[in-house]
Amino acid sequence: VASIWPFVGSRDAYACSCAAFDTQELVAMAEFVVLGTVVQVDLADDQDLNVFPYEYNVKVAVNEYLKGSGPDQFVVQDFSLQGSACSPFDPDPLDQEFLLFLNDRQGHLRTSTCAGSGRVGDSERAQQRIAEIREIVGQQEQPGETPVLTATPGTPQLPGETPALTATPDAPQLPATGSGSSNDPLIPMATAIAAVIGLLGAGLLLGVRRLRSS
User: Fold this and answer.
1) pTM across the whole model
2) CA quadruple 39, 40, 41, 47: dihedral positive or negative?
3) Distance (Å, rounded) from C-alpha 57 to C-alpha 41?
4) How many structural domains does the chain have?
5) Among the residues of the chain, which ranges form H helices?
6) How many whole angstroms separate alpha carbon 138 and alpha carbon 128?
7) What burial letters (b/e) apply to 187-196, b meaning 16+ CB within 10 Å?
8) pLDDT tens, 116-153?
9) 169 within some domain
10) Quick check: helix, strand or coil at residue 114?
């Protein structure tokens, strides 16, 4: 059984057939479901040619996380915007809003029309599915169980972007040296011993002087 998801702007139906899944199944299979707008598209530097030629890095600005949570922007690695109807993105996707069912594949976020992704536009069917997703996720998720999309380690860096610096955990502090108090119990003991030795030395010196004077 195959089906084509009727999103506005999707490619010719004959070129990509998919197994039939209802909305609940699509939500269950996706780690994240996002409404987002494409803001940048670049050729990928590290193309994965093992199965499909993943040629494009598609940068998406998040409008809403329907499932999960994460940063305001992320990159989806897509196979050929021009040559595959299974790609959810139009040949010119900039400034278009998409419903994306996303999964992390070895550090790369990926999706397809078979995963349920596509352009939203003014499609009544798309709006209906978004409402279904909100209802499904609201029923399924419990507090503390929401998946979190991090800054996606391994996500291809877009040209001109500065890699984000992660916070370095505070290094353990070494004990203070020099002036100041110390909690080392050996230090007061050593001080006391030194004082006793000093007193004994002073007494011995005084005795020697008395013997010489007599």
Assistant:
1) 0.60
2) negative
3) 6
4) 1
5) 23-29, 124-140, 186-213
6) 16
7) eeeeeeeeee
8) 999 998 888 889 999 999 999 998 765 555 667 765 54
9) no
10) helix
Domain annotation covers residue 186: no
* Residue 103 pLDDT greater than 90, yes or no: yes
CATH number, domain with residue 77: 2.40.50.120
In a domain, 15, yes or no: yes
Integer Cα distance of 78 and 16 in angstroms: 15
* Percent of the chain residues topping a pLDDT of 90: 35
Domain that holds residue 80: 2-140
SS3 content of the chain, % helix, strand, coil (to 5): 25, 25, 50
How big is the chain, counted in residues? 214
Inside any domain, residue 124: yes
Q: How many CA within 13 A on the CB side of residue 32?
A: 26
CB atoms within 10 A of CB 84: 18
Q: Are 59 and 145 in contact (CB under 8 A)?
A: no
Residue labelled with tokens 């039939």 = 20
pLDDT tens for 17-70 read: 888 899 999 999 999 999 999 999 988 776 555 555 557 899 999 999 999 999
Contact status, residue 16 vs residue 113, Cβ threshold 8 Å: yes
Contact 5, 113 (CB under 8 A): yes
Residue of higher predicted confidence among 73 and 42:
73
195 Rama class: left (phi>0) / alpha (psi -120 to 50) / beta: alpha
